[in-house]
Amino acid sequence: MISTKYFDHTILKAEATEAQVAKICEEALANDFASVCVNQYYTKLVAEKLKGSDVDVCTVVGFPLGMSDTRVKAFETKAAIEDGATEIDMVINVGALKDGKYDYVLNDIRTLKEVCGDVVLKVIIETCLLTDEEKVKACELAKKAGADFVKTSTGFSTGGAKAEDVALMRKTVGDAMGVKASGGIHTAEEAQAMIDAGASRLGTSATLAIIGK
């Protein structure tokens, strides 16, 4: 059986209600998941619900497009941490990466890591929109910027996590960083394939089904 500490129990849909988020928190506490991952609006609620536990509060930043100005992402990150976030999942500026503006992408990530300090920063590279060469470059930039994880997907674009992308990301960052697979993981078999490929964290809203609950 897959350890429950692999899972970021996720609810990011726009129509998510307070009651639904509270239920996700209860499930995370009951099963000792790694974190609950939510949009900014619910950070404070989740922090209250998870207080005193070892389940982290994960908030997404620049989500889901990553096209916000770095100053906006930095403000969003600071606000999330003030509200109790202990992990931040940011989205890179995919267009800037594709334009070869690597200094911009590096600074975007580095600025957020500076705001985070000891708070874990995961960098969503949106693999479905990138060539393999671009995936490698994005991972290299995230590593250079001091991020803690690279992450495959938002789950809101044209595709989700693929085992071959996870393997490529793990090969690129080595053992120095975490690799989070997210988007389209619905079964235990799919989850195990991601772990076998090198994922150290899984983001999914199908967590209970995956662990057989």
How does this structure look, described?
The protein is an alpha/beta fold and about 210 residues long. The protein has helices spanning about 20-30, 45-50, 70-80, 95-100, 100-115, 130-145, 165-175, 190-195, 205-210; strands at about 5-10, 35-40, 55-60, 85-90, 120-125, 150, 180, 200-205. The chain has an 8-stranded parallel β-barrel with strand order 1-2-3-4-5-6-7-8, surrounded by 7 helices. β6 (about 150), α7 and β7 (about 180) form a beta-alpha-beta unit. α1 runs parallel beside α2 (about 45-50). The protein is globular. The two termini are about 10 Å apart.
Contiguous uncertain segments of 5+ residues = none
Determine Rg (CA atoms, Å). Answer: 16 Å
Find the count of extended strands (DSSP E, 2+ residues): 8
Mean pLDDT: 98
Defining traits:
9 helices; 213 residues; alpha/beta
Q: Concise description?
A:
The chain is an alpha/beta fold and 213 residues long. It is 44% helix and 17% strand. It has an 8-stranded parallel β-barrel with strand order 1-2-3-4-5-6-7-8, surrounded by 7 helices.
Write the layout of secondary structure elements.
Layout: E1 7-11, H1 18-31, E2 35-38, H2 43-50, E3 56-61, H3 70-82, E4 87-91, H4 94-98, H5 102-116, E5 120-124, H6 132-144, E6 149-151, H7 163-173, E7 178-182, H8 188-197, E8 201-204, H9 207-210
Parallel strand pairs: 1-2, 1-8, 2-3, 3-4, 4-5, 5-6, 6-7, 7-8
